[in-house]
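Slide 14.
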Amino acid sequence: MFLCVLLIGLFPTSKVSLTVNVTGFTDNVGKSYIALYRPKDTWPEINKQFIGKVVAISGKTSSVKFEYLECGTYAVAVFHDRNNNGKLDKNMLGIPVERYGFSNNARETFSAPSFSSASVELQKDRAISIYVK
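Slide 15: predicted structure.
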């Protein structure tokens, strides 16, 4: 954190970026929904994120770069919108039927992981990998 504070003090417009690489797709059908959350956002609700991007899947992978971010703590949620309906489809019991994943590959059995278990500290440009299943 000190480095980022120092850099911001020297260069007031200093920002960092986060590149998210997603693997684990079974095919290239549909889109990858990648959402970036801050601690104050409603984790991990769709349309409650800080920044969201819809990305094509190619070679059973997708990638996105979030730029011009303040240093700090973030978490990422991803889902494979295989049928292009703009939502994570679930069965009658509320269990997702489309692949999904979180930063740090955090997983819980019956719910989404906590923000803290999926959180990523950004003090400089960084790349992370997420495996959807």
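Speaker note: Helices lie at 2-10, 115-118.
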